[in-house]
Amino acid sequence: MAIAKIFVANRGEIAVRIVRAAQELGIATVQAVSAADETMLAARLADETAKVGPAHASKSYLNADALIAAALQTGCDAVHPGYGFLSENAAFAEKVEAAGLIFIGPKAETIARMGDKAEARREAQLAGVPTVPGSDGIVTDVAAAQAAAEAVGYPVMIKAAAGGGGRGIRIADDADQLATLIPQASAEAKAAFGDGGLYLERFVRRARHVEVQILGDGTRAIHLYERECSLQRRRQKVWEEAPAACLTHEQREALCASAVKLAERVAYRGAGTLEYLFDEATGEFFFIEMNTRIQVEHPVTEMVTGVDLVAWMIRIAGGERLSLSQEDVTLRGHAVEARINAEDPAADFRPHPGTVSALEVPGGMGVRFDTMLYAGYQVPPFYDSLLGKLIAHAETREAAIARLARALGELTVEGLPTTAALHLALTRNDDVRRGTFHTGWLEEWLKGRPLAGDRAEPGGAPPGQTDAGQTEAGKESR
Amino acid sequence: MPKTTIEAPIPGTFYRAPSPEEPVFKNPGDAVAIGDTVGLIEVMKSFTPVVAETAGTLVAFHVENEDAVMAGQPLYDLEA
Questions:
Q1: Which A residues 322-361 touch B at CB under 8 Å?
Q2: What is the CB-side half-sphere exposure of residue A356 using CA atoms within 13 A?
Q3: What are the b/e assignments for A199-221, b being 16+ CB within 10 Å?
Q4: A56, A351, A473 member nearest B66 (Cβ)
Q5: CATH no. of B3-79
Q6: How far apart, in whole angstroms, are the C-alpha atoms of residue A367 and residue A338?
Q7: Would strands B56-61 and B31-32 be described as parallel, antiparallel, or unpaired?
Q8: What are the residue numbers of the active site of A?
Q9: Sheet strands (E) in A161-257
Q10: Cβ of A351 and B45 within 8 Å?
Q11: A462 vs B71: CB contact, 8 Å cut-off?
């Protein structure tokens, strides 16, 4: 039941990536387009396009019924969800299959199970994968808290059982601090939530974000090593690498083996990523969550392993067995990816849609630019600000960063500001070059306004927009 | 009474309420003071409030909730 025609239920650079993979496999493509996306690059590259609704994503790329109707109408036999939008929506996967189409991704039940954080944590524990240590349930008094903290390990985070969103979190470095903080935290939780129940979790002060790429065919799974994505701003990844330079060989082998155990335990099908928190001080890693889809930063893994992840997703969905063995996957060199966003780094990363009046794309050995851009393209304001990803691959990390700097220098996007200037500054930063950073590093560094004055302010900003107006739309699910 | 038409400062999606569960910022007939938030415009998942720079009475909206707007497109009419 090999796939003959794929419906691309996404947009932007990932839609381009999917269309390209399909073309190389000899598979026809139909690109979903909202009213704002008829001129996008993926629509130009695909064999056909199908209108799926108005500009607003809730009425187009998030409208399961419209997408499935369009896929059926255009004679497709499979749907690729990309990342974001409906890619991790179990109900969508189920509807796609119920319509007689192939969902290019895991089974709906796997998406549902691994999408539930508590359930995923339980599965990880059952597979023998370490999770962030915590108290076994609620701690009721200081003595119980101290006993629990002894097992969890200091420093510990005190959280309100009824709370959420980080409210009322306290950090205790030792048993004495815990004795002081527990009554305060309990009283506060009682006042705020009507419930004084508390629980403890290990606090990792300088965490690094590492994640393991896996591929499975529903029976067997392999890993494609790990990535490090510690450079983040507002919990959005900004710069990613493969492999994670902070790991020793033994740590890498243990981390990747744990990911395969969990993937095989849930009979994983397709491409997936297991996210971990790495404590550099102790060398421990803890599973946090699983993403049951392709990720934005997948190209760094493709560069260092030579494995086409999107092609494999399609082949597995078409019924092929995973013919790669773990021994077939070897690491070669180092890859770094810079996310190029339509944001102004000199003006608090204000998003800035507009028309690309001119475009010069970097080239040369080891350089890859996965993008939605072309000269003359009008970037619509309705979707996220990712324009593309500039990836540099070389024999060593140092050489990959030098190559990225060279490629960033060649990149010209005229007509709107991009985050290229941020990345150029990062390639020159000593902490980045040494690899001595953690998930809080980038925001701390940005507080020193290292990029202010790169451009005149606020000349490039849209009129009438104020700094105070920026609020977060919430964590992007990608 | 002089009528002023307020235009969208930036392109994006216009919202009349802070979230779908909450009441709208302003209804036709409401008084608008300088500094009042009349709506939100979402640009690339960032929300920017539409803040009144003129006081008056809101007469009518030119756009619906969740409409796509272009910069310079009329948003609402105000009577001073």
A1: 342-343, 350-351, 353
A2: 24
A3: bbbbbbeebbbbbbbbbbbeebb
A4: A56
A5: 2.40.50.100
A6: 12
A7: antiparallel
A8: 293
A9: 170-172, 198-202, 207-217, 221-233, 236-242
A10: yes
A11: yes
CA-nearest residue to A475 within chain B is: B45
Q: How far apart are CA A388 and CA A178, in angstroms?
A: 47
The two counts, helices (H) then strands (E), for chain A are: 15, 22
Say if pTM beats, i.e. exceeds, 0.90: no
- Using CA atoms, how far residue A286 sits from A124, A203, A251, B33, in Å, is 10, 11, 12, 52
Q: Residue A442 region, left (φ>0) first, then alpha (ψ -120 to 50), else beta?
A: alpha
Answer yes or no: are the C-beta atoms of A92 and A71 closer than 8 Å: no
Q: Which residues of A11-21 are buried (b: 16+ CB within 10 A; e: fewer)?
A: bbbbbbbbbbb
- Whole-number Å distance between alpha carbons of B60 and B57: 9
CB-based contact, B43 to chain A, within 8 Å: yes
Could you tell me the sign of the dihedral formed by the alpha carbons of A189, A195, A196, A201, in that order?
A: negative
Contact A382 B9 (CB under 8 A): no
Nearest Cα residue in chain A from B6: A464
ipTM for the assembly: 0.72
Q: 3-class DSSP state for residue B77? A: strand
> By the 8 A CB rule, do B7 and B74 touch?
yes
Rounded to the nearest angstrom, the minimum Cα separation between B2 and chain A is 23
- Helix (H/G/I), strand (E/B), else coil: A259: helix
Q: Which amino acid is at A158?
A: I
Please give chain A's pLDDT, 478 residues, in tens: 699 999 999 999 999 999 999 999 999 999 999 999 999 999 999 999 999 999 989 999 999 999 999 999 999 999 999 999 999 999 999 999 999 999 999 999 999 999 988 899 899 999 999 999 988 888 888 999 999 999 999 999 998 887 765 666 899 999 999 999 999 988 888 887 888 889 899 999 899 999 999 999 999 999 999 999 999 998 899 999 999 999 999 999 999 999 999 999 999 999 999 999 999 999 999 999 999 999 999 999 999 999 999 999 999 999 999 999 999 999 999 999 999 999 999 988 989 999 999 999 999 999 999 999 999 999 999 999 999 999 999 999 999 999 999 999 999 999 999 999 999 999 999 999 999 999 999 999 999 988 875 444 333 333 333 333 333 333 334 4
Question: What domains does chain A contain, in order, with CATH numbers?
Answer: 5-104 (3.40.50.20), 142-202 (3.30.1490.20), 207-447 (3.30.470.20)
Which tokens is A141 given?
């008094």
